[in-house]
Each structure stands twice: as C-alpha cells, then as structure tokens.
Specification:
By secondary structure, this protein is of the alpha+beta class. Helices cover 34% and strands 17% of the residues. It has a five-stranded mixed β-sheet, with helices on both faces. Bound molecules: FE2/S2 (inorganic) cluster (2 copies). The site of one FE2/S2 (inorganic) cluster (FES) has 12 residues, from loops.
Length: 160
C-alpha cells in the first residue's frame, strides 16, 4: 500500500508525515512522531486514553485515520504546557492527587482542557459529562472532578 503525504500542525509545529491509508492518528503520533504521551488503551474507542484535540475538539485518536487529519491542528498532552509552565489542568490534577498509574491521565487532561476552552465555569455535571468517555481504573473520579473545578478557578483568576 502506498503512503500518503499529509501536513498537520501538531502542538504548534508544522509536521509533514508519510502515512499508509490505514494508519490511525494514534499510531502516527506514537510510532512516527514519538509523541508517546497519548496512550493506547483499547484501540476501540472505549477508554479515552488516546484522546487528543483535533481542531479544538476532543477525539479518540484510535478511531481516526491519520490521512483524515491532513491540514488539521492537533494538540496532544505534550502540547499542554507552555514555556515550561504547566497548564492549570495539569497543576491541579497533581495537587488533588488525581493521578495514580497515570495511564488515563493524558486523555483526561485533554478532555478537561477542551471543556475549559469552551466553558470556563463548568458545573460538576458538565465536568462529568465532558469526562464520560475517559475511564480511570485507579483513582476514582472525585479527585479528578475536583481538579477540573480547581483548574477552572485558577484559569479564571489568571485571566482576571
Ligand atoms: S485507545 Fe482509543 S479509546 Fe481506548
Ligand atoms: S490513574 Fe490509573 S487508570 Fe487512571
């Protein structure tokens, strides 16, 4: 099968990548670009560990073909911090103890960032809805939800 040359903006940098038609976005990120922060949990759209932002929307990267992302802007967990400063969602999930094994964490961080980008003051229910596709088998969800609430508050105070 021949490769397709695609161009994407990933974490703010333009990348040109040659990919076979059947390569998923997840495989491309991990295997071709060494962005291994995005995790492969199920390859079936069930766990959310592979969540990345595509043009600002959270998607399961195991369910999207890389060729479909030609021209897209992609943000992975590696792109959340800026100039060595963690994103508020990263800072607060650490402070709240919302990380144990950490396997789900990149996907949870990305879904949380997507939520706070579109809704800077979410209710508990809106946070639960935003994280419904992200499974965590370790921590339980209360600390994670508290972390997103704290991140929202922190983000609002940084903006004011
Ligand atoms: S690896 Fe994509 S949803 Fe589980
Ligand atoms: S911290 Fe282990 S799966 Fe969530």
């Amino acid at each position: 099968m021949g490769n397709h040359r695609i161009m994407l903006k990933i974490n703010g940098e333009f990348e040109q990548v040659d990919v076979p038609a059947n390569l998923t976005l997840l495989q491309m990120l991990r295997d071709k670009l060494a962005l291994t922060g995005t995790k492969n949990g199920c390859m079936a759209g069930e766990c959310g560990a592979c969540t990345v932002l595509v043009n600002g929307d959270p998607v399961n990267s195991c369910m999207v073909l890389a060729v479909e992302c030609d021209g897209a802007e992609v943000t992975t967990v590696e792109g959340l911090a800026h100039n060595g400063v963690l994103d508020p969602v990263q800072t607060t999930i650490i402070a709240q103890g919302g990380v144990q094994c950490g396997f789900c964490t990149p996907g949870i961080l990305i879904s949380s960032r997507a939520l706070l980008n579109r809704n800077p003051n979410p209710t508990d229910e809106e946070i639960r809805d935003a994280l419904v596709g992200n499974l965590c088998r370790c921590t339980g969800y209360l600390r994670i939800i508290d972390a997103v609430k704290d991140a929202a508050e922190r983000q609002r105070s940084l903006a004011s």
